[in-house]
Backbone:
């Protein structure tokens, strides 16, 4: 089993080099307090447009970059959630525990392998997002578990990230993000610090309204905000995803194909709708 896991995590570790959105967030988060207000006035308008409306063209450019690795084309054995961890995560902590228990480095397709089946998913063409899709061919995909919604994007600028909405009540969720590959043990605060915009909020707040500090998290700054659901006209069917897997060229797009295969190889996913009370992302 250990050798199988090691073979699994060796596939597809190298994601696209461009991390423009993450770099922008990190630069602002590192700024000294005295610089934040100046930078915020100078950059807020630009960043609002960049994060919420302007990522689509960047994602398309990134999607056209040459493939970084062909290791993802080699499928020997799918990864399994290690003993003592959960294949059905209920929150950020459960995912961190799985990733820390797996042999390093851990690719995103390897983590997807560990999730309990059948997967309950909703795929969407996501244009207004920090994790945009690259058209219907490479949509953003949400996965549903009791207590948490996870999301990935098959290509583009957000394709190396796993995003979280840990459900707090009927309309709010705790936001977090993990970048892949995971090459070392994750600190508990890492998923929350990755999305910090400044001491008052996160980059998620550009699109998700009413950010508030998560008072139950004392070890770092973390924030909740209003959950959103994709517009129905932007949905991408499971049949379309299956067809994309059948046509996928592992030599040309190893990371994208590996994620598609991870979604389907242990059983066909089930379509899952978002709660009807959530506002639309438009």
Residues:
């Amino acid at each position: 089993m250990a050798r199988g896991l090691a073979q699994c995590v060796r596939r597809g570790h190298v994601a696209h080099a461009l991390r423009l959105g993450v770099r922008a967030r990190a630069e602002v988060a590192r700024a000294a307090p005295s610089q934040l207000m100046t930078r915020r006035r100078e950059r807020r308008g630009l960043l609002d447009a960049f994060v919420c409306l302007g990522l689509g063209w960047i994602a398309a450019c990134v999607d056209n970059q040459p493939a970084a690795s062909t290791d993802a084309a080699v499928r020997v054995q799918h990864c399994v959630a290690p003993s003592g961890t959960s294949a059905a995560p209920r929150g950020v902590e459960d995912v961190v525990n799985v990733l820390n228990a797996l042999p390093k480095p851990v690719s995103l397709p390897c983590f997807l392998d560990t999730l309990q089946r059948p997967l309950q998913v909703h795929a969407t063409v996501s244009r207004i997002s920090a994790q945009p899709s690259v058209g219907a061919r490479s949509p953003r995909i949400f996965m549903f578990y009791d207590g948490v919604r996870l999301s990935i994007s098959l290509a583009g600028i957000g394709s190396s990230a796993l995003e979280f909405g840990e459900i707090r009540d009927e309309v709010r969720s705790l936001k977090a993000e993990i970048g892949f590959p995971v090459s070392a043990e994750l600190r508990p605060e890492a998923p929350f610090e990755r999305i910090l915009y400044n001491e008052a909020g996160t980059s998620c707040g550009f699109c998700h309204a009413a950010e508030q500090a998560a008072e139950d998290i004392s070890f770092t700054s973390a924030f909740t905000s209003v959950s959103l659901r994709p517009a129905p006209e932007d949905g991408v069917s499971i049949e379309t995803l299956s067809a994309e897997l059948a046509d996928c060229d592992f030599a040309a797009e190893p990371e994208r194909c590996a994620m598609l295969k991870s979604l389907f190889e242990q059983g066909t996913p089930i379509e899952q709708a978002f709660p009807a009370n959530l506002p639309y992302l438009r």
